[in-house]
Specification:
Layout lengths: L9 H4 L2 H18 L2 H17 L3 H25 L8 E5 L2 E4 H26 L3 H10 L4 H30 L8 H32 L18 H25 L4
Antiparallel strand pairs: 1-2
Helix pairs in contact: 2-5, 2-9, 3-5, 4-5, 6-7, 7-8
C-alpha cells in the first residue's frame, strides 16, 4: 500500500528521521530531567498539538487511560507507600489514610508516563509509513525488514475496514452484534472467521504482486520517492540533538553529584 504524503502542517512535513530523533530526545528529557514542570509542559503542548492536528477522536482512548492511571496511581500509592512512621499524614478519604510519601511517589511515576503517552502518540501517528520505509532502507536496514515493519502497521486499517464491512453485512443478515458481553461473544465467531479468511486471501494476492514486481530479486533496490531535507528538518534535528545532549549531560552530572 502506498500512503499519500500529507504536508498540511509543520509536524506532518517533517521527515521520519527527524520525528524519530525528536521522539528519542523528548523521551530521554522527560525521564532524565525529573522535573514536574517540564513534564507538564510537554504534556500540555502535546495535547494542544493533538487537538490542532484533529486527532482528538483517535486519542480519546489514551486520554481515558491517562485519567484512569492518574486516579488509581494516586489512590494506591497514597494509601500504601509510607516510608516511616513519622511520614506526613495528609488525610483520610473513604476510611483510607493517605501519606505525603505515597503522593510524591505517584507524582514521580505519573509525570514520567503521562507526558510520553501523549507525546509519542503524536509523533508516531503523524509519521508517513511509506516515508518511514524509505528512510529505514536508506539508513541501511535491509529492505525486507523495512517492508515487514511498515506493512505490519499499514495492514491494520485495511483489516479494520474489512471488519466494519463484514459486521455491516452480518447485521443485514440478522446477526445481533450489540448488547451484553455474551451477545458480543456469540457474534464474534461469525465476524472474525470471514475477516481471517479475507486476510489470508489478501496475503496471497500481495505475495503474487510482490513476486511479479521482483521483490526477491538480487539486484540493487531503488526507491520511487525522495525524502526532502527541508529547513524545518534541519532545525528539528538540531534542537533534538541539543535537547538530547542536555538531558544526558544532566543525568551524568547528577549521578556524579555535580549538581
Amino acid at each position: 500500500m502506498i500512503q499519500k504524503r500529507d504536508t498540511s502542517t509543520l509536524l506532518r512535513r517533517l521527515s521520519p528521521g527527524s520525528k524519530l530523533l525528536l521522539a528519542l530526545a523528548g523521551t530521554l528529557a522527560v525521564i532524565f530531567f525529573e522535573n514536574i514542570w517540564f513534564s507538564i509542559a510537554v504534556m500540555l503542548i502535546s495535547y494542544a498539538v493533538i487537538l490542532y492536528e484533529k486527532m482528538g477522536s483517535m486519542f480519546k482512548l489514551i486520554f481515558v487511560s491517562t485519567v484512569s492511571m492518574f486516579v488509581f496511581m494516586y489512590a494506591i500509592y497514597g494509601a500504601v507507600v509510607q516510608e516511616n512512621q513519622k511520614d506526613t499524614y495528609i488525610g483520610t478519604y473513604l476510611g483510607i489514610p493517605y501519606y505525603q510519601a505515597g503522593i510524591d511517589k505517584a507524582t514521580h511515576f505519573f509525570f514520567r508516563i503521562a507526558p510520553l503517552m501523549a507525546f509519542l502518540f503524536l509523533i508516531f501517528r503523524t509519521i508517513n509509513m511509506t516515508d518511514l520505509g524509505v528512510w529505514m532502507t536508506k539508513a541501511g536496514l535491509p529492505y525486507k525488514w523495512a517492508f515487514i515493519f511498515t506493512d505490519s502497521f499499514m495492514v491494520i486499517p485495511v483489516l479494520s475496514k474489512d471488519m466494519e464491512q463484514i459486521m455491516d453485512a452480518q447485521r443485514a443478515r440478522g446477526l445481533v452484534t450489540e448488547g451484553n458481553l455474551m451477545t458480543r461473544m456469540k457474534a464474534f465467531v461469525p465476524v472474525i472467521v470471514p475477516v481471517v479468511a479475507n486476510a489470508f486471501a489478501k496475503v496471497q494476492d500481495q505475495a503474487i504482486a510482490m513476486d511479479t514486481k521482483g521483490f526477491n530479486s538480487k539486484c540493487k533496490k531503488t526507491v520511487y520517492r525522495e525524502l526532502p531535507n527541508t529547513k524545518e528538518d534541519k532545525l528539528c534535528k538540531a534542537l533534538s540533538l541539543l535537547l538530547l545532549v542536555a538531558a544526558v549531560a544532566y543525568k551524568v552530572l547528577k549521578s556524579l553529584n555535580k549538581i
